Amino acid sequence: MRTITRATLGLVIATAGAAGISLAAAPAAQAAPQVCPALPGQMSKMSDCQAMSGPMGLALAISNDGGKASSTADNNAAPAAIAWGPGSSVTMTGIRPGLAIGIAGPGATVIVDGKNGPTCKGGMAFAGDFQTMQGCRS
Is the pTM of this model over 0.85? Predict the structure, then answer.
């Protein structure tokens, strides 16, 4: 179990690092992104992001420029939610072992519930869910 948790943590950190690098390269960033990480048994909350993790999960939520990101994890799940731009919304729920990522641009909505396939609506959006082995884009 520790190997799975360490591998999952590594992937979540790598994803957050990649998002951070891409954000740092953005020429017209208006405000610092809100980053909410949650290790096993933790919760992190800011005005536009929230991450909550059970005893065996890892959660990450990142929001910027009016986006809303939420991530909840347990049972060796590791969802990452990234909402970037006005009107963007990402809601991620990890209930089974596996990684999941959802990224929404301005006006887009992504929902991953861990049971059904992800949904992507509105503007540019992407989701990949290893819990259900499905994805979406819009």
Answer: no
3-state secondary structure of 9: helix
Extended strands (E) in 65-112:
68-73, 77-84, 89-94, 98-104, 109-112
Beta bridge partners of 53: 73
pLDDT tens per residue, the chain (138 residues)?
A: 456 555 454 544 545 444 444 444 454 556 789 999 999 999 999 999 999 999 999 999 999 999 999 999 999 999 999 999 999 999 999 999 999 999 999 999 999 999 999 999 999 999 999 999 999 999
Q: What would the DSSP string read from start to end of 50-71?
A: EEEE-TT--EEEEEETT-EEEE
Start-to-end CA distance of the chain, whole Å, equals 35
- Cα distance between residue 51 and residue 74, in whole Å: 11
Q: Are 13 and 5 in contact (CB under 8 A)?
A: no
